[in-house]
Amino acid sequence: MEFTNIKCTSLDKNFDEFEYCRLKSVNRTFKYISLKVNLYKLPVTKVKVNFALLKRFSGYKPFLYNITADACKILKYPKSNPVFGFFHSFFRDYSNMNHTCPFDHDLIVDKVSVEFINTQFTKVLPFPLGDYQFYSNWIADDISRAEVRVYGTLS
């Protein structure tokens, strides 16, 4: 797996804004992604997340997963939704989004390495080769607040 791009979009600048959202290439073999979103209306007590995995076939098309989940409930009871758990495991250990609601601080995902994602995509749940987009829509108080898209190639 190789990261090719990351795009972060704030859909409500009064609610949140991305301080940074970057793909960093340290050398030819080590790349990581990091992002920080500043939250302006705290505490955040009601969060839903829509995760989708898309594969490129003449444009990005839905592939395997597209779920919307109550993040607060699942963070409290992690075994209640194993698919959400799989996607959350991509960044859980690299972020401060590893506790249940309320969130009363800025959200950070720091240095998620391509090696970790590669293990998830090849050993934990093998995927076919190709170009992928991991899409997430973050919904607070039933309003879409932010989107994060991570692009990668599995070869």
TrEMBL record:
Pfam families: DUF1091
InterPro entries the record matches: DUF1091
PANTHER family found in the cross-reference section: DAEDALUS ON 3-RELATED, DAEDALUS ON 3-RELATED-RELATED
Record-given protein name: Uncharacterized protein
